[in-house]
Amino acid sequence: MFWVLAPVGAVVLGYVFVGLWMRRHPDAMPYGARFFLGLPRRTLHWRHLLDVLAVGAGDRVLEVGPGTGYYSLPVASSLNGGTLDVLDVRAEFVDHVARRAQAAGIANVRPTVGDGAALPYEDGSFDAVFLVTVLGEIPDRRAALLELHRVLRPGGRLVVGESLAGGDPHYVSFGSLRPQAEAAGLTFESRSGGRLAYLASFRAQAV
């Protein structure tokens, strides 16, 4: 029995060690992990995001950290006459999403390589912004929230999704997120989901 449990215990300890290291050293997900990013998500399904995001026809929306496009394609498809900008620090991911959009006949996706803490957009550019299991990967979270507020039009909506249920080592608790978002000038609107996975909605105040 010992010879069976020992390797399992080593794997568990290794997983915990890697998770703790990643939490203390936030960084963007590597492109090599794209398989896991494309898996179906029960806790934060794209339909749930669409309900919370509540975008309208013609809206311009930004997604930071699109991964392989799990949320990107449904959101882009819902924008009647609107556009979805997708931004990631890794060119491989925005290229991946662009290829998937083209293959699906979705022509309103605009890919950009950039840093979530220094967004390459003008003030008030977007009606809505969302990022799911991404905020904790940005080393300067305060700068990122300030930038997200800056690029939203007054009254625009920011939706932040987080999931500890999925084993995200960069999970940001709602208790941590809300005061940081409010300090960046964002007004809390609503929260949906459970203790281990949630979507939180904020509104941009007038600058």
Helix-strand layout with pairing:
Blueprint lengths: L1 H23 L9 H4 L8 H8 L6 E5 L7 H7 L4 E6 L2 H13 L5 E5 L12 E7 L8 H11 E12 L10 H10 L2 E8 L3 E8 L3
Parallel strand pairs: 1-2, 1-4, 2-3, 4-5
Antiparallel strand pairs: 5-7, 6-7
> If you consult CATH, what is the topology?
Rossmann fold
Major sheet description: 7 strands, mixed
| Number of structural domains | 1
The helix fraction, in percent, is: 25-40%
Share of β-strand residues: 15-25%
The spatial strand order of the largest sheet comes to 3-2-1-4-5-7-6
CATH architecture field: 3-Layer(aba) Sandwich
Stretches where pLDDT falls below 50 for ≥5 residues?
Answer: 4-27
Q: Please provide the ordered H/E string of secondary-structure elements.
A: HHHEHEHEEHEHEE
Tally the beta strands: 7
CATH class: Alpha Beta
Find the CATH superfamily.
Vaccinia Virus protein VP39
Describe what you observe in this structure.
By secondary structure, this protein is α/β, with parallel strands linked by helices. The chain has a single domain (2-204), classed as 3-Layer(aba) Sandwich (Rossmann fold), CATH 3.40.50.150. It is 37% helix and 25% strand. The protein has seven helices and seven strands. Helix 4 links the parallel strand 1 (60-64) and strand 2. It is globular and about 40 Å long. Mean pLDDT is 85; it is low at 4-27.
Summarize the structure.
The chain has seven helices and seven strands; from the N terminus they run αααβαβαββαβαββ. It is an alpha/beta fold.
